[in-house]
Every structure is written in C-alpha cells, then in structure tokens.
Amino acid sequence: xxxxxxxxxEISTELPPGQLLLDFIRYHKHLMGTKIGCREGDCxxxxxxxxxxxxxxxxxxxxxxxxxxxxxxxxKHVVTVxxxxxxxxxxxxxxxxxxxxxxxxxxxxxxGFCTPGFVVSFAGFCLSQDHKTYENAVAxxxxxxxxxxxxxxxxxxxxxxxxxxxxxxxxxxxxxxxNSILPEYFVSIKKRLLEINSKTNxxxxxxxxxxxxxxxxxxxxxxxxxxxxxxxxxxxxNKKELNGISRDGxxxxxxxxxxxxDLMESKIINDAFPDFKKISKLISSxxxxxxxxxxxxxxxxxxxxxxxxxxxALDTRIILSDGVVKREISLRNFxxxxxxxDKKENEFxxxxxxxxxxxxxxxxxxKVSKRxxxxxxxxxxxxxxxxxxxIIFNAGLSAGGVGPVPMYLSKxxxxxxxxxxxxxxIDEATEIxxxxxxxxxxxxxxxxxxxxxxSQLIKAHxxxxxxxxLCLFNPLSP
Length: 478
Ligand SMILES: Cc1cc2nc3c(=O)[nH]c(=O)nc-3n(C[C@H](O)[C@H](O)[C@H](O)COP(=O)(O)OP(=O)(O)OC[C@H]3O[C@@H](n4cnc5c(N)ncnc54)[C@H](O)[C@@H]3O)c2cc1C
Ligand code: FES
Ligand code: FES
Prior knowledge:
Helix content: 25-40%
Strand content: 15-25%
Bound molecules: flavin-adenine dinucleotide, FE2/S2 (inorganic) cluster
Structural class: alpha+beta
Number of strands: 19
CATH architecture of the largest domain: 2-Layer Sandwich
Shape: globular
Number of helices: 19
CATH class of the largest domain: Alpha Beta
Number of domains: 2
Radius of gyration: 23 Å
Strand order of the largest sheet: 2-1-5-3-4
Distance between the termini: 68 Å
Largest sheet: 5 strands, mixed
C-alpha cells in the first residue's frame, strides 16, 4: 500500500509501486494539467513538486513525474498544477495565483502546453530555501522547455515572481499562504505527513528479498520504462540509512542515495569544493538533479557519467553490501568492461566516501557538450592535484567519453607525480593520455575530435588551476 498526499487529498493505492507518478496523476486521478512531452526527463512538461519532512522541516523539490515511481513518493506530498489553485470554490474559479498571473501579464504563454510545468517549477522556487533572486528564479526553470513563446517573456515573469518573494524573511509556507501566493491547505501538510509517516514504511520492509535496485529512476525509467512498471523493485531512494552527508576526520561520507541537489546544498561539500554548484549546474537540470543519485550514476556505468568522472579523480571508495556482508572497493576498480561491474547482482552500494581536497590540493572538472545545459558530455574530465604551486606531488586524472568505461588515467596520473609544472610536461602528459584511451566515433563526435578534446581538457585543467605558471597556453594572454 502506497500512501501520500496528492494536492490536498490523501491517497492510498495498491497499484504496482513501479508505476509512474505521471500516469497515476493523469490516468487514475484525471488531473490533466500535468502534461506528457518526452517521457525522458528532458522537457519539464510533467513537472510536479514533492514535499517531505527533512530535519523536522517541510521541504519541497521539483521532479519529473515521467521518471518518478509511485514507490518513491510514498509518505510524501505531491503537488500538481491543480494543487496550486488558490481556491476550488466556484466563485473563485478562474482566479489566477500570482505565479500564474505573472506568466499571463508578461505574455509568457502561447499554446500553453509547457505552461503548467513552468508554473510548477516557479512554485517550487517560491517554496525553496534558495535566495529569492531573479537568477535563482530563472535557474528553477532550467528543466522546462518552451517551443513557441520564447524565453524573454518567461524571464520577465521570473523577475516578477522573484520580486514577489523578496520580502519573505521567515517561514516560507506561512509567507506564501498568508500572502495568497499558494493555497491555504499547505499549512496543514506537515502535520498530515507526520501522521501518514507514522503509519507507513511498508515498502522499505517488504523489499529486502527483491532484486531490482532503484534510486531516483532517471536512468532506469529512460532505459527500461515498460519493464519497470511491474518489476519487483528494491526502493533505495528514501531509505534513511542510504541518505545523508557527513564528515569523519579526513573522510567525507555519503549515503548511496544522496542526490546531486543534496550535494549542492551540503555545507561539507561546498566547503571542500567552492565551485561545486557551478560544476553541478552543467549537469542535467534542477528536477533531474533533485532525484538523480550518486550511486545511480556510478552503477549506470555510462562512460560519460559526470559524477563518476568527478569522483574517480578523487579516488573515491564505495561500500557494497548484499544486506549481510559488506565490502569496500575503490571506484577506480569498479569498472571491468562496458557496463560490467565488480558487483554481484544482489549487492547494492550502501556508502561512498572520499578524502576532500586539502589545503595543498587543487581540483577541477571540465565538460564539453553540444549545448551548455541539459546535455550529456562528448568528453569530460576531472583532476585532483597535490601541489605547492610549482611541483605536482600527486595527481589523479579521469576522463569520460574516451573509452568503454569511465576511465581513471593511471599512467598519465603516475607520470605527473613529482613533476615541475611546465608546458612541456603537460604536453607529454597529453601524449601519454592519448595512449591510454580508445574513443569511438559516434553521435557525440568522431574519434579524432574526442582525442583532441581530451588533450584540450587536460590543458584546460592546468590553465584553470595554474593561471600564472602557464600564461602561454592562455589564448587571452598577449
Ligand atoms: C534529462 C536527463 C539528463 C541527464 N543528464 C545527465 C548529465 O548531464 N550527466 C550525467 O552524468 N548524467 C545525466 N543523466 C543521467 C542520470 O540522471 C544520472 O546517471 C543519475 O545519477 C542516475 O541516478 P538515479 O538515482 O536516477 O539512477 P536509477 O535510474 O535509479 O538507477 C541507475 C542504475 O543504478 C542502479 N542503482 C541505483 N542505486 C543503486 C545502489 N545504491 N546500489 C546499486 N545499484 C544502484 C539501478 O539499479 C540502475 O541500474 C541525465 C538523465 C536525464 C533523464
Ligand atoms: S514528459 Fe518530458 S520531462 Fe517528463
Ligand atoms: S507556450 Fe507553447 S510550448 Fe510553451
């Protein structure tokens, strides 16, 4: 039995937990405001909000309902565009909330197909803990595509919505309800969720014997949509023991189901990687990052998995478990061949840990894709260098899109050890890297292009990390 709140109504359903939230909303609840566009997480037409209690606070995030299993919203609040209407009373029918009104006022809608998705994402911005700036309002719709209006008028609406939220300094739920931005019933949700959660955790208990592990579903539901609906699923996404980020001495420890957004919001991660948010914004979109887990990225084993490449450079360790026996291995030894892993079928990743960069460590990540946002990489690369600014004491270099697996470039990394940072050394390193990789020509570029890209990305690492040592590389230098 799955229980959750859909807008202001409590739902109990015995439908298969692998069923998609999008289909439940449209075909079982006949709430047609949530649209179906791509069914692959790319267009944002199906965006809804999910609310849950984290650290005693009600937290909302936008998600693509086309990739979200019913099992993953057990015990949560799901908000569709209908749930944002200020009143269901007949005399108020047609009255727009200020978010909808901003879209209307700015002419930010034409055919209207994408509009519910934009409105829900903006409502997510209003409910989030983010600073209520214009930039953050625009960032909240980075997963929504509009094919006919043009984005200028939508950006103007974003400005109005950010202005509307500027005055809020206290509790966001109280602000949006008392200022008639979102409906009154949001006030009661926290109490109702606490009641539901005290009754349910059924899914977690009954899944122990089942085999198909599911994180956020952003890979599995794209690749195996039909199969997943009735599959026996082991839901890992909401498990408390697989969530959370902590620091223990030199170790940064993450639960396997930590999402990209969890990392972006973590003080521990941002202290260790000041550029983490900037890097992460190059990866997928807000509603995908809200559900994409790090373990899912590792196990999907895409040769261009961005977080896999990032964590390979950091010499990350993973703890695998079959529920009884645990073992720890290096992420660098996890990949045995194309989509072949050092993992038994019944093993799942439980924890991930790495040593965050210290005072003498520098870290950089580079990604080249056909468009800046919402695109997979042609080639990506990360590097961690231990240095005094002149000598490389140690280096870890990874590269994606240049072989059948996400690659740790062990020979190039070993070559860089104890070398002085000079252009000659970096040229030699790119030569060695070329001997380690085996890219193929495909839709993301020819073999030659990918080889060239990797050499350029290695140089980009050094230009970024040592701008003073290597000014000759810099095309902007005289
Ligand atoms: C629109 C869109 C854009 C994307 N953009 C990017 C991008 O820019 N860069 C990028 O790298 N990826 C991107 N992705 C891919 C995807 O979002 C990531 O790979 C994500 O991290 C997968 O995590 P998940 O929790 O959704 O995985 P799921 O789909 O739930 O699972 C993926 C695989 O991991 C397994 N699994 C999950 N958790 C565990 C665990 N704890 N132990 C063992 N096995 C487990 C599952 O069984 C499955 O085989 C994109 C996806 C979409 C839909
Ligand atoms: S239908 Fe396109 S993102 Fe879900
Ligand atoms: S208004 Fe038509 S797709 Fe956006």
